[in-house]
Each structure stands twice: as structure tokens, then as C-alpha cells.
Write a structure and sequence with these properties.
Elements (H helix, E strand, L loop, with lengths): L28 E5 L3 H11 L6 E6 L4 H7 L5 E5 L12 E4 L4 H13 L3 E4 L12 E5 L2 E5 L6 H14 L3 H15 L4 H11 L7 H32 L1 H8 L3 H20 L3 H11 L4 H25 L5 H24 L4 H24 L13 H15 L3 H11 L4 H26 L5 H21 L5 H27 L1
Parallel strand pairs: 1-2, 1-4, 2-3, 4-5
Antiparallel strand pairs: 6-7
């Protein structure tokens, strides 16, 4: 005898009953039937999320825009003819975008007979799966589904999340992965530690605000304490006051400049070298001495940043050695060359200003194209890139990040590993360049060196916060315009004096 209690009566759940999955389309084969506007829309939705997806497209006509789009995707194959039943064989997923309901229904019937999963454009009731809207932040993906009721709402939600979720989420994800790889112990211990690390993600906003206020209070207390100590020495120790008054004003100019340039570099990840060099030249410092000041001030900051990236396993060691050895050789040769021409600064100064002018234009172009996406192919000649980047960086007083990092990322390298590798190698480039400059030069402008070192060191703890408050694009445009104008002014002034 059997019976069923009231509590065990099956209740039909309301709302969206779809089960979300993320498919590895590079391991599956997809058939797309239809090469018109609808087919292009479906194709873009797939390839922009899975660029290595293997897709066969069958259609008797192809939209020119579709042909242009697939040109960058070698895994996509085109078959310019009408659909045939045998086209279904060997595929795992089928997307129907013919625009003809009768043909779509026929193909769907055949596909179901082969147990294939099918998506029919604009016909939710005929679909086994939907192509939902996707929000992507690096390795983080969020799928949005309205159960086929309103693709427009899904699109608007995607725009909302894409705009408001910070790009730093991917960095948090990578750091969590690095933390997980360092944990020892059993599964329960690892879960406990990871829960502690991610607690802030679910901490109430009021508690986060209180925590931020506490941090700012501590920073404020530390800053006020330094001012108080300085004031006590100033008013109670005549020898200290005499020493400070005897410091050359150039030191204070470079102290302020180093602070500002380090803040900018913390916000956009580049331009410290080019801005510092441009400023140094405008202050009348010869190119070799300007490059010396920049490289010495970068040793500490890049050493700390490189070590942190190494600890977080963000460094590709093979790429590191391929960059380091040629980069050091190029940097030392550049430093020796520029130092030997120090007495001809009236010639080298406009040349270096021309270089900073070009870098300013490069930064401006990067800012304009910052939101544009394009198909990437990996850069091959890494050693030549390292040598050229090191040489130009030493001669021009900066550019390792702008040249090497930008080239690696534009050439298809993973941004996280490229950044970590370039930062660590930058420490050795700056160190060897500085040693070469100091050895070769008879007169080092230590006021400029110490000003940049101390100014950038003060800015380092708060530079990262700047990137969350100000538009990266706006900063890059402003920096590029300033660098271009100052470089032009220095070039024109030097040429006028020469004439």
C-alpha cells in the first residue's frame, strides 16, 4: 500500500526554468544556416564570446558585412549553397537563421531526429537553447536570460552591468586564483580561507564605508604626524631650518612633479617616464641627466611592483628571460651612448624631445582607441622588442611600458601576465640603466633625482586609488596633450637658441 502526503505533492515552479551552462565551443562543432542579417547577428554573438569556435555556415547568399567579419576567424568555414540534410552530420549545435519559418521547421525536425540541440532565430518555442546576453570582465562572464520573452530587456541589463561592474573585478578574480594556488591543507581549510578573502564582496555598504573612513583616518593621522614632526624641528632646531633653507629649489619642483607623475602612472599604468623626461628637459636638465633621474626613481617602485606580481604568479618566466637579457643590453648601450653625448646636449635635447613628442601622440591614439576591440595575433620577435624597448627607454628617458607592454598586449599576450612580466623586468632595466648613467656621467643632478624618488614614493600608496576615481581615457588625453605641447616648446626653444 502506498500513499502520498500533502507536502510531497509536486508543485510546478513558475518563472524561468532554464538551466544555464557555459559551453567550450572550441571543442564542439556548430552549424549556422543562414548568411543574412540574422545570421550575422547570431555569428557575432557566438564569436565575440568564443573566438576559437568551430563554425560551418551554409547559405545560398552571404551578406558582405558577414564576409568581412569572418575574415579574422580562421575556424569559420563558408559553404555557398542551399542547405542539404547531410550538413547536419558531425555537428553538436545547430543555429537556424534563414528567416524562412517553413525551412527552419523542416531543418529543426531533421536535427531533432539526430538528437542535436537547436536554436531557431525569433522562435523561442522551437529552441532547445537561447543565445543570452553576456557581460564579460576578463575571465568573469555573466549570462542574462529573459526566457526568450524580451531580448531587448536582456540587452539593456547587459549595458547596465557592463557599465557599472568595474574592470578590476577580473584582477580580483586572478588574485583569488593565485591565493587559492598557494593554500595548503584540506578542502575545508581552503574554503574557510577563501571565504575570509571574499567577505568584502558581501559586506554591507555601511560597513565598507566605515572601513574606508578608518583607513583615511589612519592615513590622515600619519600625514599630520609627519607635518607636526617637521614643524617641531623647524621651530626648535636652527640647524635643521638652515639645512632645509639651503636645499636647492629644484628639489621641491621635482618632488611635486614626481608625486604627480606617479599618480598618473598609477591611474593609467604608463607615462611616468615620458612625463618625467619631458618635465626635466623643460627645466633645462640635459637628456642624460634627465634619463638618470627617471631611472633611479623607478628602481624602488618597479622592484616592489615586480615582486608583488611574482608572488601572485603573474610573471611568465620564459617571456621574462626573453625580454630581460636583450632589454638590459639595449638599455646599457643606450645609456652609454646618451652619456657620451652629454656635452652635445644642444643636439640630443631636440632629438629626445622629438621622441617624447612621438610618445605623446602614441598615448593620445591609445586613448582614442581605448574602447575599440580587434582580432589579435601573437607577436613573435620578443628579443628584438626587448632590445629596442631597452635602448629607446634609456635614450629617451622612458618608454619601456609604452612600447613593450603595449606591443605585447596588442600582439595577443595575456594582459595580466604581460603586465607582471614587464613590471619585473622593468626593475632590472631601470637598475642597469641607472648604474651605467651614474658611472658615465661626471655631473648628476641629484636634486632632480632625489625629488623624483621621494615624490614618487609618497604617491605610491595612493596612486592605485586614483584609477578607480578618474576616467583613464580622460587622463591619457590630458597627459598626451601636455607632453606634446611641452615637447614642441622644448624643441622650438632649443632650435631657436641653436640658430
Amino acid at each position: 500500500m502506498s500513499f502520498q502526503s500533502k507536502n510531497s505533492i509536486e508543485v510546478k515552479e513558475e518563472g524561468n526554468q532554464l538551466f544555464p551552462v557555459f559551453l567550450k565551443l572550441n571543442q564542439l562543432k556548430v552549424l549556422l544556416v543562414g548568411g543574412g542579417n540574422i545570421g550575422l547577428e547570431k555569428l557575432q554573438a557566438v564569436l565575440l564570446n568564443s573566438p576559437e569556435a568551430k563554425i560551418n555556415i551554409v547559405s545560398d547568399t552571404f551578406l558582405p558585412a558577414l564576409l568581412d567579419f569572418v575574415a579574422a576567424y580562421p575556424e569559420v568555414k563558408l559553404f555557398h549553397r542551399r542547405f542539404e540534410p547531410n550538413d547536419l552530420l558531425g555537428h553538436d549545435l545547430v543555429i537556424l537563421a534563414t528567416g524562412d519559418n517553413h525551412i527552419n521547421a523542416e531543418i529543426r525536425t531533421m536535427a531533432r531526429g539526430l538528437n542535436l540541440l537547436i536554436n531557431v532565430a525569433d522562435k523561442p518555442e522551437l529552441c532547445d537553447f537561447y543565445l543570452g546576453s553576456i557581460v564579460k570582465k576578463g575571465d568573469l562572464k555573466i549570462g542574462i536570460s529573459t526566457n526568450g520573452k524580451s531580448p531587448t530587456i536582456a540587452k539593456r541589463l547587459k549595458e547596465l552591468f557592463q557599465e557599472n561592474l568595474p574592470d578590476e573585478l577580473d584582477l580580483s578574480l586572478q588574485q583569488m586564483n593565485a591565493l587559492r594556488n598557494t593554500l595548503n591543507g584540506d578542502f575545508a581549510h581552503k574554503v574557510k580561507e577563501l571565504n575570509k578573502a571574499t567577505a568584502i564582496l558581501v559586506t554591507p555598504a555601511s560597513e565598507q564605508v566605515a572601513s574606508r573612513r578608518m583607513r583615511w583616518a589612519l592615513w590622515g593621522t600619519g600625514f599630520f604626524s609627519l607635518l607636526l614632526i617637521f614643524g617641531l624641528f623647524w621651530f626648535n632646531d636652527p640647524a635643521f631650518r638652515t639645512y632645509v633653507e639651503g636645499i636647492h629649489p629644484t628639489f621641491y619642483y621635482f618632488l611635486i612633479a614626481g608625486f604627480i607623475f606617479a599618480m598618473i602612472d598609477g591611474a593609467i599604468g604608463m607615462s611616468y617616464g615620458v612625463t618625467s623626461t619631458t618635465f626635466s628637459l623643460s627645466m633645462g636638465i640635459p637628456p642624460a641627466s634627465a634619463s638618470t633621474a627617471v631611472h633611479v626613481s623607478e628602481i624602488l617602485s618597479n622592484g616592489i611592483a615586480g615582486w608583488m606580481h611574482f608572488r601572485m604568479k603573474n610573471v611568465n618566466m620564459r617571456l621574462f628571460w626573453m625580454l630581460l637579457i636583450p632589454g638590459v643590453i639595449g638599455a646599457v648601450l643606450g645609456a652609454v651612448l646618451l652619456s657620451s653625448l652629454e656635452h652635445y646636449s644642444y643636439i640630443t635635447k631636440p632629438i629626445v624631445s622629438l621622441y617624447t613628442l612621438i610618445l605623446g601622440i602614441v598615448i593620445l591614439l591609445k586613448a582614442i582607441k581605448i574602447n575599440q576591440k580587434k582580432r589579435k595575433s601573437k607577436i613573435k620577435n620578443i628579443r628584438f622588442l626587448g632590445f629596442g624597448g631597452g635602448f629607446i627607454d634609456a635614450v629617451g628617458g622612458g618608454g619601456w611600458g609604452s612600447i613593450v607592454l603595449s606591443s605585447l598586449i596588442a600582439g595577443g599576450r595575456n594582459a595580466r601576465y604581460a603586465l607582471g612580466t614587464v613590471k619585473l623586468s622593468r626593475f632590472f632595466i631601470a637598475l642597469m640603466s641607472s648604474l651605467a648613467f651614474i658611472t658615465m656621467l661626471n655631473n648628476v643632478y641629484w636634486e632632480a633625482v632625489l625629488g623624483l624618488v621621494i615624490g614618487s614614493a609618497i604617491a605610491s600608496p595612493i596612486a592605485a586609488r586614483l584609477s578607480n576615481k578618474i576616467s583613464v581615457k580622460a587622463i591619457m588625453i590630458a597627459v598626451s596633450i601636455i607632453v606634446i605641447l611641452v615637447s614642441l616648446k622644448t624643441m622650438i626653444s632649443t632650435l631657436i637658441n641653436f640658430i
